[in-house]
What does this fold into?
Amino acid sequence: MNRLFEFAQFDRLSFWLGFLAASLVWWLVPRLRSLRSQDRNKGSIRSKGSDAGKTYGVELRFRNEVWKHVQGLHLAAPLFPLDEILIIPKFLPPVWPVEPGTNEPPEDIVTQTIPYLPDWPELAAEYLTPSLSIGLALGGRSHLVILGGIGSGKTTCLAYLASLLAHRDPSLGNLKDCLPIYVHVVGLYLSTSEPHRPIDWLSEALSCYMDSISARQLHTLLEEKLRDGKAVLILDGMDELATDEIAPVLESLDNLSRMYPKIVMVTTANPDNILGLTERGFYPVSIKSWSAAERSHFLQRWGEAWSQHLHAGDNEPQWIDPLILNNWLAYQLDGLSPLDITLKIWSAYAGDKIGVADSEALEAYLHRLTDGSEPIRRALQDIAALMVHSGKGIIPRKAVEGGYAWATLENNELIYAHSESHIAFKHAKIAGYLAACGLTDYQNLDQIDWNKIPRSAISDSALIFLVLYHGATWMVDQAVESDQGSLHATLFRVARWINGRDNGPGWQVDVVNQLARLLQAPSNPIGLRARCLVALAVSHHPNAIVLIRQMLVSQDAVSRQLAALGCGYLRDTQAVQQLIDLLDDSIPGVHRAACLALARIGNKTTLQALFDLLLRGDENQRHAAAEALANDPMEGHQILKEASETEDDTTRRASIYGLKRIQQPWSNQILQSMEKDDKQWIIRFSAAQALEQGGFEKSYIPKPLPPLSEMPWLIAFAGERGIGLSPGKPTYDILFQALREGNEEQQVFALSYLSLRGDQTALEDILDIYRTTIGEVREAAFNTLWMLAARGTKLS
It folds into this structure.
């Protein structure tokens, strides 16, 4: 060994250079491995970022496609995009009892005086009931079903929601970043995809207008948003399906919510047909009718859009002055739906012959959209008549193709063209009018057994026109004679057919008289009597106007209250002195109604009476006068401004109640000044309280119903009896026990729950309460029966 080392030549420099080189290699290797791993990670991140960028780009295109699509979903789409003439939709705040032990939401003169009538919203609209915006209505992330009659603007409301979502509007709160999945029910109803594969049938339904997005991109985007709870399904057309067409759509919705429980869904229904929706967590909210101010604003917007898009020398007659035309039209639109208002304004601006009858504006509209083609008109009538005969809102295309030039129909603005196999109309009222024309051309109406035809929006609309313009008055006789039960649903359905302003045929007088008898009967619930009042007022029938005025001197306080509201709605100047006399009525509901009526009539005499009451009435009268004056945007608002500066402390304090209702920057500024600077502490306190309560509509935001076993009031009821609650049938039995044995507050809560989730098994108990109780409990029982009937429960 020593000899070996002896002959080896040891170079110190080489040794240390080698040692350093080896050390450097061992130091670099792990770091190079780490850098290589980081490089791979960065590549992965870049790839993911690229994918995210692609998804973001797809989402932007999706939102843009939705916005473009919904801009054409309104009656005047051939003329203007929706945003140019939109009147922002509003909802009646839904009524829900207050949990025991919690503070009741603030009320104002309107909510204290006008009953909640989701199927007759006209009265609440004219008296400016507090409203829910679509953003507030969705603030609790509850599914919504928007209730409204034919032509009330439900589709426009859905289109407006889709536009807000497409633009990520901040008014939608925590939903603003959600993806708007806007589809028509035809797409779901006709989907060839399996019901348990919701992404597939949603993609299929959306493909009709998603031109810039591939099927794979659409599928990926929907999957991501639905999984993350960042999607709102906006389902149009549910209100136009016949009753036996609804089941497959509900099955699809069940599968969708089961797979993606975070989704929020919004759809539509007629107020008397909410089949299968509340059981699935949909909360009903009623769309408000347009007030006089909103009708005036629509006229103004229409005139501006017409002047911008349709120049003289094209379609606009040279003689039209929009200001003169709008002033004339303003007196023709009371009580009309947004659809009817649009038809009448369009006809007036186009120079058509128009009058009181709906048919004149409808004929002008159809002539424009068919280019005056008789074959196209005949084909549309036959299709609509077939829908009524078959009891369908959607029919196979092959059933009507024979002999028709389908290409001319397929592009028609009246028909949905996104299905190659089936046909649906865009507007139920127009389809009903066409059906009525088609039915009378080909057969005797008395040969049709209407009792065997499933109800739909189209068949209901057809019946109206058959009665009004085709002499089928025997249908009214049958309906009125068969009107039985606690709700008188058939009578109210026929009441919508009255086209008043003259004496009309005899059947209208019969319906008016029957409504009058129900209205004047003190034994009937206020909810029923109020519906009669609105039906009579909306009819504008001369007999109805005289009857309502006569009720102002009734011995029954509810009759006087409702009569005052009716006279105000009709702006009956002949009733002014009687309304002024009612300002001193000892019943608060009566003098509040008189204040509201005088403010709505709004002439010099009525406003002076309210001004005098504000200055010299007792405290309650002054408060009512101030709140009523808030409904008059001209003189009423000016009076409140001056009252807030008067030296009289009581008047100054009363003005706060009116200023609080106005909810505008200038009124809030006055309240802030009073809170800070007024010399009286009670006025400073009242102003602060008014500012705090401002926007109290938030108290009415619909929220998903908790399980029965988690409802505090039912837990308390069960605890009083030593019973524990757990999910399942035993808890439902305890609910019925509360309905039978609970105090008034608990009975009202039980009835409210059953209105949304009850079924046939609850009917006998509810009817028993309706027949044997009085006051708030009986009113709650009536409202529950109304909801059960709307949800498909047979009451007899």
User: Anything to note?
Assistant: The first strand starts at residue 143 and ends at 147. The beta strands are 143-147, 179-184, 231-236, 264-269, 282-286, 395-396, 415-416, 422-425.
